[in-house]
Amino acid sequence: MLEAFDLTGRVPKGQYSSIVEPLEARTAELQREVRKRGKSVIIVMEGWRGSGITRIINLLQPVLDPRGTRVHPIAEPNDIERDHGMFWRFWARLPSYGQTAIFDRSWYTATIVERYNSDSMREIPASCIEDINNFEAQLISDGNLILKFFLHISKEEQKKRLNDIKDSPFTMQARYLRRKEGIYMVSRDFEMIDHMLMKTDMPSSPWTIIEAESMKYGYVRILQTFNSAVECWLEKGEGGQKEQNQTFLLKSVEESEESSLLQKADLTKSYTRAEYKPILQGIQESLRDLQVEVYKQNIPVVIVFEGWDAAGKGGCIIRLAESFNPRGYVVEPIGVPNDWEKMHHYLWRFYTRFPRKGHITIFDRSWYGRVLVERVEGFCSEAEWQRAYHEINVMEDELIRDGTVLIKFWLHIDKDEQLRRFNDRQSNLEKNWKITDEDWRNREKWDQYESAVSAMIRRTTTSRAPWTVIPANSKYYGRIAVLETVESALQKKIKEIK
Fold this sequence. Notes:
By secondary structure, the protein is an alpha/beta fold. Helices cover 51% and strands 12% of the residues. The chain has 23 helices and ten strands.
């Protein structure tokens, strides 16, 4: 992609102001329209060291309304960011709907600095390329416009510029980039960068190579590209870009294998109270010790609870929480998203809740609401919930590859047991706060929910992130089964590390 570019382009002498002023006016107008329509623009600025990224952003900033624009300089991750996967800090910085985000360096630089071994690799690993493409595909599917610019200069121009700025105190990212000797140097990294650009040049998020030897010429090209892309995007609407979007699917288990998981659950399994108490005590003691190892080994743990209303999620979570030191875990009850959460991709509110290394997060309901309640109740479109299976698989695979122990539970009861528990809650003054009109309405749609649950389990069970269906007609049995599964998963992970 870089070989063919003529770097001699210049703005005709004496014409810069007459060219740039109408372009800037149009850029400002388009940003206002983006904000009015509640859309988001994500601008990615990458380029060779010394190519002028900061200078371009300084030129662009006065044109864009600062009330709707945020610049994110990406440098050395802080302690919290290091305790999460690489993409976590980019999810946390995504703009809300109607806003514009400018990434001064981005997930591309982070991939090169943090994941690429220049001593043993000639190219960015295919898995890293896939991660980037998946990440951008999710954002585009949610209606964001991604504009990616790479500022290109010759090795002679780079050498001259680096000599000029080597003593500058204002090179914020210099320390970060120096983690890899010679990174973003034209003479050394040309083939690697060119390969990365080609592999991530997607129809829905193409790269624009900016000839940046002349800063004025480069700035004009960026304004022209911004205006043209935003005009086209607004004219087509979200659908136009989504149609071009490529999907990168993870393999789920075959439908024939998982479609009957609910039917296979043996709901007759049970424990008596006398059997339950000593088993519970023993597992809780084991989990206390395992939590210490989780902390020592810097293992993040995510435990997801889904299930029928009145299936006993709360009771399982309480017994699980009793096992842990409260300094090292948090329970996240998930309900209807608030107004701020609705201004972001639906997965954003979960990414921002994921645990640091060595900590445990228990989700009481989760991101699976998109393919359950939101699907059945019509809170999202069919295209959105159909797409969500893939998006969830991508997110969970990313978590696991970053070292997270992910445990997913579906607490299963039959329709008769649910009715018995509903009636018990309604007639018991100490429990009737647990039952709502919404619970009864959901029960009327049992068959629809059962179909949604079966599809969820089938399409989001992967080799690394399987569902565990817990027979929960017996609360005692359900609680023990949950704790035993958590115990086994933690033991397995700790053994792998040691």
